[in-house]
Amino acid sequence: MTLPCERIGPAPVPDQARQHLVRMRDGVRLATDVYLPEDLDEATVPAVLVRLPYDKNSRYVFFDRIAALFTARGYAVVVQDVRGKFRSGGRTLPFLREPQDGYDTIDWIVHQPWSVGVVGMFGDSYYGFTQWAAVAAEHPALRAIVPRVTTVDFNATSQSDPLDGAAVGSPVWLEGIEYYAHHWVDNGTYDYEPDRSLRPVIEQYEQAFRAIGARSAWFDTLAPRYTNLFPALGRHPFDARPVPVLHCVGWFDNILIPHMRDYVELASRPGWDAVQYLWAGAVDHENYHLDLAPVAEEDDHAVSEAALARMLPAYVDPALAFFDVFLKGVRPVSSLPKVDWELGHAGRRTSGAWPPAESAERVFWLGDPADAAGPLPGAPLTGEPVAEQRSTRWVHDPEALVPSLVPNSFAVLQTYPDVAPVAAREDVLAFSGPVLSEPLDLAGPLGLDLHVTSTAPVFDLYAKVLDVSPDSRAHLIARGQVSVRGPQAPDEVHIDLGHTGYRVRPGHRLALIVASSDYPMYLPCPGTDENPWTTVAAKPSTQTLRTGGACPSRLTVTVLPPRAD
Description:
This protein is of the alpha/beta class. The chain has helices at 63-71, 98-110, 126-137, 155-158, 174-183, 202-212, 217-222, 256-267, 305-328, 412-415, 420-423, and strands spanning 6-8, 18-23, 29-35, 45-52, 76-81, 115-124, 142-148, 168-169, 189-191, 245-250, 276-281, 339-342, 348-351, 360-366, 379-382, 390-396, 429-432, 440-454, 458-468, 474-485, 493-504, 509-515, 541-547, 554-559.
């Protein structure tokens, strides 16, 4: 049995670009488009390099439009299909050759007649990772990078290594691992719809590979058995020569947590700390904005040219300002705020650090959970710890999983569903704070500490922080998830919920929901210690949450003091 698969190849090279086949050190040639400023004369210009696996000429990445904004500002733009993708030669295998290929491409750029010998890099997701790979290679011409919605270690976003013995790790992000089965098989990309409900789950991908006639080598390193090949990269980028970095993060990005971990580490690391900058917006991975969510067709930049034209300046302008300082030197360093961030529903702000110096932790204690297994508002989130311990139970049934609701977590704001129906399920615990009389401004990290046990040897916890409006609709603010190995589990399980900038407005409530599945975004725990990819029989398990007394389960957020605006 096979799945129907559609192969998607490269789009035409735009008229305004000149494509080169740039030779790497091992003889492989990579397809590389160059866009130059129209008024280029004998003066040479700095270059902005983008190395990506998604077809440099596709409508999806719209680099003909992006390049026009950079060239109008006096930059050359170099956009390259990475090794093994679309028009580039070489084996289709992510990550491992990117340091060398990044170095060799920068070296080619600095020898071009139009080049001033200074290079910056820009881009999202995987083409944020290629920037870190180039940093690790330490070409002296690389002077600044602008990694957007990305991380230095993508494998860590997909799952934790089950063999490392840790009591608390990460569930299997099925959507993230499936990415390699679509995009990293050969030079093209493959569109197909696996039925993730069939067991064993791995068989759906085997069917796809049979239909394609080829396999994804990187998918095979992650499923069904995880293999960490990242040490093969050599030098870790954070151990390389520091370069100025503008981290561009989205509060609703599905890989916000690892990107913010990268930023926080570098902002505290001597040598790197002075050149770390943060731009944060109320956007998701695909750059949909909270103010437009859920997105109407006329505002959807994926399908509307007018919407794309409206979106692009906000997408590109932070990088232009950064490169004007560190590539051209036409603006002083003092013109850049260390942190330029958005408070969702309340506009943009700047600060000298993240979180802002005036912010403070605030704890919401999980109160008596008697009403938690029911619709919002559920059980209370209180300002004081509960003196007497209480408990509640819920059942994780692998045949009746809690739905993810979003069809694509990379574009969560495109649909931005009401989560209240999920909160009303008996297998979901819900807690809410009081109706607010004044704004609650969240600005910094969030975390959840739970006292949970299970009848299963391995169980998952999914937590979502919500904004509940006066009409009882609930929408996502932040989320996090862990996989817990019961026998070694700590008494208190910590869930990192990332960071946010978000205003919970007067008349609204801050709420929290906790569940044991999030499907189909994450591969469900089978209720046993079997591999979730290969199991054919799953069984229910019962989780017990304790709160109050000696088990102070709590939600910790970072808030700003009230101010008049």
